Amino acid sequence: PPHEPEVVRQEAPPRQLRDIILYFGSHDGNNLIPESRELSDCMDQNSCIQATVQALINGPVGDLSPIFPSHTVLLEVSEKQGTAVVNFSRDLRQGHPGGSSSELLTVYGLVDTLAANFPYIRQVKILVEGKSVESLKGHVDLSKPVPADFSFTLSSESEAPEG
Please, which residues have CB within 8 angstroms of residue 151's CB and are 6 or more apart in sequence? Predict the structure, then answer.
């Protein structure tokens, strides 16, 4: 009888599940709200970071608002001495709706998501097509790494009081 190709099954590492928190936009577009997710195939730090950012781009499973344009392509991630470098396709800028709050949610949704899940990441440098950019649409300074800032995040669906 023909041999069953068993090589693939033997080489597949056990699927590791990791609980992560993703920050997406609130309905009013002014805050970030965490959504829990289980990531599989999170074998090393870099692939974990990449999978986390990809999950952010893919958008919320619940009824929160996505913070990335749907066509955004994640090109590369790396991390060095507490700074994550995340390189996106130009769709991140071309497809972005603009507006200061929308831009803040994209940037801090990314930075806070990485800082929350990878405590050693303290700031994130956002690249577009491998190049440093001034901003996405003129509101948030991206010329240097952006430190995490959880002042935009709400703990859950409860509306935080203004102030």
Answer: none
Q: What is the pLDDT of residues 46-63, one digit of tens each?
A: 999 999 999 999 999 989
Q: What does the DSSP assignment read for 5-28?
A: --HHHHHSPPPPPEEEEEEEE-TT
Q: Are 135 and 103 in contact (CB under 8 A)?
A: yes
- Count of positions (residues) in the chain: 163
Letter for the amino acid at 3? H
Residues 6 or more apart whose Cβ sits within 8 Å of residue 48: 18, 39, 42, 117, 118
The DSSP bridge partners found for residue 124 are 84, 146
The residues, ordered by sequence, that sit 6+ positions from 10 with a Cβ below 8 Å of its Cβ are none
pLDDT exceeds 70 at position 86:
yes
CA–CA distance, 123 with 86 (Å, rounded to integer): 11
pLDDT band at 161 (very low <50, low <70, confident <90, very high): very low
Give residue 158's pLDDT band: very low, low, confident or very high (50, 70, 90).
very low
Q: How far apart are CA 15 and CA 22, in angstroms?
A: 20
**Paired strand residues for 132:** 127
Residue type, 152: F
